[in-house]
Specification:
By secondary structure, the protein is mainly alpha-helical. Helices cover 70% and strands 0% of the residues. Helix 7 packs parallel to helix 10.
Length: 324
Amino acid sequence: MTMSSQNCKTLCKKIHDSKGQLNHLAQALEAKTQVECQEIRRTYMEMYGKDLHQLLKSIQLTNQGDEAGASSYECATALSMLMLSSHERDAVVAREALEQSAVNFKAVLEIFLGRKSSHVILILQAYQTRFNRKLEQDISSIEPPHPYQMILRALASSHKAHHAVVSEHIGRCDARRLYQTGEGRPGAIDEAVVLEILSKRSVAQLSVTFSSYKHIYGHSYTKSLKKGNHGQFEEALKAVVSFISNPPKYYAKTLYRSIKGATMEKGSLARVMVSRAEVDMNEIQMVFKKKYGMELRDAIWESIPSGGAYRVFVVALATKTTSS
């Protein structure tokens, strides 16, 4: 459902009159869908000649590095992300993840694993248009080198391949190859075999493979990665398998770690809440409650200091389910 033209204009005037006050901006946008936010951005540009996304980014930068304004910074970040189309947002997330002093590989991993191939192509195009760079080249040029780079390049190649219908037979064959070149032999796993499979199979096909592995060998593939020589490659591969095997559980754990301050990953709470709000937030909230014994909204409310717009805004995102 889209907003009426008059309602959209009225809201844009309200945003303009707020003069950048985050509590007013958050109240105006917290209940809006992604489609509505796109409509608001276009209308605001027509009415005032300014890009609402850039306006929110400027507020974000004003509060960057200010410990007292940390909540304001996060709120402006989340609001600015709402103004972007899904593929633009992913392009921005990827760029910011790669620019961090400690590269946020998991943020990029979520993009390649959690988006359809048609969407990934749009992300790559948006990245090149927006930053005049190629995402895959930026991933390859990261220094110092990290095993995540090899895995991300393989997943990028996978999205460019033409995948056949998901096959149980291929899943069983790949599972056996992973076993024979992993825990089924002494020494480290054969990274080349893993990367070949990741580069040639769709995410749906990989899900069948990891399910077949558990069925055939009686335990998950991630459990096998904990055996023997466990290094950075195995740790990165565990993140891939965890996501593919159960995305809502992966996101629930990511949110919990962010809420509890158990991760140094910058912006993970806002990133996940904005990107999953109208996708699978229902499932994430159910997993979160089952795993941690509390509602996601309550955990967020308790973790964010009162007095700012950010806490109310993020809790509102949790209500943006697929039924919105």
